[in-house]
Amino acid sequence: MTKDFYTAVKERRTIYGISKETTISDERIQEIINDAIKYTPSAFNSQSARVVVLFNENHDKLWDITKEALRKVVPENNFAPTEEKINSFKNGYGTVLFFEDNSVIESLQQQFAAYKDNFPIWSQQASGMNQYVIWTSLSIEGMGVSLQHYNELIEEDVKKQWDIPNNWKLIAQMPFGKPTASAGDKEFIPLEERIKVFK
Question: Which of 7, 12, 57, 195 sits most deeply, having the most CB atoms within 10 A of its CB?
């Protein structure tokens, strides 16, 4: 790690301008993802996170699937900005697909019925942590990253294309690549409105 944790947290941003170049090897990308999935916490140590990493034509295919799914729901006369946005993700080097294994969640619901309603919530929280760890780790390595959610539109086609188990639920898509533009300015709500401290 080339930055301390707090610097990495502060500097992680959404980067939409990305290219088909990379700042690190495919092996390093996989190492980052492996470590995140292995060591990021989950409720009851459920380890329900599942990830698919797409490179090369697989990455391109994902965003072609997404574009065609959107073409069915976005009016043709309004489609140009949508196509431009999807192409910006396709311009990247790769994509991480985040899933949660519903069979793990359902098993925990049966074992611990008192917490039944909480397990889907805790699953989403664990997925968010995995996304954050991978996002921040890729950013440390100089990659531009964003997080997208075209889940319902593309899940069926994604599962068919890559033979994904039916019990895996698609949560998010994370395109990444070498940055071609920096993030814009970010505004912050005053912390006094967001944090209460009692001593």
Answer: 12
Element (H, E) at 51: strand 49-55
Give which of 143, 119, 139 is closest to 48, Cα–Cα: 119
Amino acid identity of residue 62, one-letter, is L
With a threshold of 0.85, does the pTM exceed it? yes
Residue pair 179/13 in contact by the 8 Å Cβ criterion:
no
* pLDDT tens digits for range 42-69: 999 999 999 999 999 999 999 999 999 9
The helix (run of H) or strand (run of E) holding residue 57 is helix 56-71
Q: Are strands 49-55 and 144-145 parallel, antiparallel or unpaired?
A: unpaired
Look-up of token digits 């502060």: 10
Q: Pseudo-torsion of CA 194, 135, 4, 15, nearest 10°?
A: -80
Grade residue 2 by pLDDT with cuts at 50, 70 and 90. low
Q: Nearest CA to 91 among 33, 199, 177? A: 177
- Classified as helix, coil or strand, 15 is coil
Contact 177, 91 (CB under 8 A): yes
